[in-house]
Amino acid sequence: MVFAVVRAGGRQEKVEVGDEISVNRVVADEDGNITFPALLLVDGETVTSDAAKLAGVTVTGEVLEDFRGPKIVIQKFKNKTGYKKRQGHRQELTRVKITDITEK
Fold first, then answer.
1. Using CA atoms, how far apart are residues 2 and 46, in angstroms rounded to an integer?
2. Distance between CA 80 and CA 102 in Å, rounded?
3. HAMAP family in the record, alphabetically (predicted)?
């Protein structure tokens, strides 16, 4: 069982080959692939967390689609002053399928 912890869009994600993850909108290369930096690699019983060894680890993914996340409603209210404010937000996201975890 091989999995890695990668940095993706300001967060850390645990990924295996074949997993689909949603990250903040990223731009892929011309082939539609993305490379993530690995923070941790687990290959069976061996755990690699040394930065020098992780420099040779590449986690690649294929962009499946760009989409928008769910609507988040932000409401502010102050009592007795008549102040009300309502605002919404939808985050731009990218769905990525992990295709390969290689170690040099």
1. 10
2. 61
3. Ribosomal_bL21 (MF_01363)
- CA torsion 59-38-66-11 (nearest 10°) is 160
Distance CA 34, CA 60 (A): 6
Four-point Cα dihedral 16, 20, 21, 27, nearest 10: 110
Contact in structure between 24 and 53 (CB atoms under 8 Å): no
- Residue 103: the pLDDT is 87
Distance separating alpha carbons of residues 22 and 14, to the nearest angstrom: 12
**52 beta partners:** none
C-alpha span between 104 and 90 (Å, rounded): 39
The pTM score is 0.83
Q: Is the dihedral of CA 89, 23, 35, 41 positive or negative?
A: positive
Nearest to 93 by CA among 70, 59, 61: 70
For the chain, the domains span: 2-103
